[in-house]
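Subject: complex prediction, re-run

Hi both,

The earlier run crashed halfway through, so I resubmitted it with identical inputs.
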Amino acid sequence: MLTLSTPARTIREVLEKRSGRPRRKRPSQYHHGDLRRALIEEALRTIQSDGVRGVTLRGVGETLGVSRTALYRHFADKSALLAAVAREGFRTLRLQTLDAWNQGGRDWAAFESMGAAYVRFAVRNPAHYRVMFGGFVVGSADPELDQEGAGAFQALVDAIVSLQRDGLMREDEPLQLARFVWALVHGVAMLQIDGLLGAEADAEAFTRFALERLRTGTGRN
Amino acid sequence: MLTLSTPARTIREVLEKRSGRPRRKRPSQYHHGDLRRALIEEALRTIQSDGVRGVTLRGVGETLGVSRTALYRHFADKSALLAAVAREGFRTLRLQTLDAWNQGGRDWAAFESMGAAYVRFAVRNPAHYRVMFGGFVVGSADPELDQEGAGAFQALVDAIVSLQRDGLMREDEPLQLARFVWALVHGVAMLQIDGLLGAEADAEAFTRFALERLRTGTGRN
DNA sequence: ACCTGAACACCGTTCAAGT
DNA sequence: ACCTGAACACCGTTCAAGT
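This time it finished cleanly. Structure:
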């Protein structure tokens, strides 16, 4: 029965029966509910090292020691997995920007730190940031993702309202101002990630310059 | 010879010989050097209608009536085709923004028109814009793409220098100012494309607001 | 030169089946 | 409930072969 032409799969099955334990990476845990978590973390790891295009359900499954279709017990499809990864990103982004704002004195300098923290997150996690904004999450309609994104945005709105209360920022509609600031830091981050600032440009110096002009504008008064 | 089991291909070949003209979309031209052009245009059409992910070498080839590998005579790979599409985008972007700048009086209003034209191009051609900035063009090292991108950027730099000469813009380093403006319009465009402005937000009004704040800043003087 | 067609090594997803 | 394995319908790319 166990001839040379026996598929490797069959041999492994025999060995697993023998030892009483499969030879894959600790699969028993996944029967207890943390495969979902493991899938998100492995997807994120792959994204950081190889980019979004490197994420394959086959690869993720193999690394975790489960079949390539096990994922469908926890996510509707691949896009839903990426949406979960994006959600993690917005959460981290909110925590890091809020930290910069609160650590500072909630003045304009703290607001600039907040912006710098935003850009720093994007530049340090370019592939992750691209998953959050690159249009990879299709089919949409992930309410939890929308909620997490809205949470990160709200941190910005709150800071702006605070600055207005202290007479440090223009009395425009806070939402409109928040969109403006978001667009700027998003643009600064994207240009840096895409390497479009030019070789001679100092990325950090440019971020500082951009945050200064955010306050003063570019016109000559 | 021409039995029921004869492949359709053979039948078509016979018909083509008969009529003296092939039944595919004018393939004879492709022997004269415009398959490259046709591939770019068909790829762009597919991008506009179905997004980048809808572009397959098989689909493009089939529509044009050539084999799915014919492309490799004109492009190194799929990424090189997308790079050519991106190049077209930067060319159009430069022409449209320059037009807005020149049609206006080269004053600050014209500069805002230039910014609005930039955002308009992105919003009207979201999938195309994403090809230009979404990190789809990998492997990089397409000098012609870099050159076209640099050309679009130079139009912005020139406008800024002109404004400075007329005493309308701050006397900062023009390159740094150009990067700042680019980051802002890029951010505004991306947020609109990604539908991240919120349902109640008026996209055009926001663009106007953003371009005003570009001049005045957000701080309270 | 330019294009074809088969082959290769991949994909995501579905689904009946196993425990 | 949770996971598997085979099957399906796709991909991009290579390459010998045709004209």
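The first helix of chain B runs from residue 8 to 19.

- K.
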